[in-house]
Amino acid sequence: MSKNTQKNHFSPVFSNKYWTNEEAGWKYKYYYFCENRQCVIDSNKDKGKTAWGYELNLYSQELEDRFDRELENESAILYEKLIAGKALTADERMKWGQFIVTQAIRTPSFFKYRDYVESLNGGNYSYKNSILGCAGCEENKYIAARNWVILMADENDFFVRTDNPVYMTGFLNNPSTTIFYPLTPELCFVACSAVETILLLKGMELPFPKQEFLQLEKGDAWSINFELLKSASSSIIVSKKNNSPAVSHMALQILGLFPQIPFMLSSANNHYAEALEIESITNIMSMADGVDYPPYRKYPFNPFYGIEFSEGINPFSVFGVTNERLRKEGLIE
Q: Across-strand partners of 2?
């Protein structure tokens, strides 16, 4: 007989733990939106390792047990392999795809918007029973078949973790969509935009997708953090060693300003279809949150194929080009 789990972690402890360590007392620095004060709070009280990334009774005990048994145990091993730079097999890439897809739709934020849609259509909330999917499900291919890049933050830069851990720039089946998922404060997983046209000679097969590290330049991680913070729902954690007045100021100003659009509510495989769907979903967000969100939100870093840096393009820089290219053009020393 399984134990009764009331604290349902939508962001697994095995992934959150990288934002803390023994030196930090196994605690995170924590920023959150306070409903009573209607503002973002710089918490004076740190969160313990298991005390963030959960909601009470978020889903059934059966689903909680299935997460452990069918997804998280294996995903934790793949997590370690990605951090270590070990290449994943085709089957492992599909399992990791399942983890990312599921992680995107198991959050309180996604449930809130999906519940609102269901309330308009008769109130059937059984969808939670099917969010886990399977390792061989078709939607996982939109992650598994793309090139992967593990972004490495520059020294003294870092990544935050939000309660919308997966940052998506568009719908899953749109080739131009890029998916970001911070693995640690130093590393961020990216499923790159798909190269839409690849010419192959007759009889040739598509090359196996790449998996490689990419070193970011100073400040690039802050550009990504800006988007992560804006896309949060109501809270973030930061490694205590990385907390600073700059982090606090940015969190207080933009945390949850325009939460991650729940792209998994629908699908679109081109820009025109995507624009129509985004407008519809943004209306749902506005009604559910009681906030008048703009009808359009630009998601930067889209497309990002993972080859831009080799061409002197830096999509994460305010200059749009790498420091190396700026040096070649004599604009910096």
A: none
Written as one string, the DSSP assignment of 205-221 is -PPPPPEEEEEPPTTHH
Provide CB contacts within 8 A for 52, sequence distance 6+: 11, 16, 28, 30, 235, 237
The tens digit of pLDDT for each residue in 272-321 reads 899 999 999 999 999 999 999 998 888 999 899 999 999 999 999 988 99
pTM strictly above 0.90: yes
For residue 2, being part of any structural domain is answered with: no
Q: Which residue is associated with the tokens 């809270």?
A: 235
Sequence-distant (6+) residues with CB within 8 A of 116 are 284, 287, 288
DSSP reduced 3-state for 4: coil
Give the 3-state secondary structure of residue 145. Answer: coil
Dist. CA 152–CA 168, nearest whole Å: 19
Alpha carbon distance 302, 178 (integer Å): 6
Q: Which amino acid is at 276?
A: L
SS3 188: strand
Residue span of the structural domain in which 33 resides: 7-328
pLDDT above 90 coverage of the chain, percent: 81
Asked whether residue 134 is domain-assigned, the answer is yes
Q: Give the total number of structural domains in the chain.
A: 1
DSSP 8-state secondary structure symbol assigned to residue 120 = H
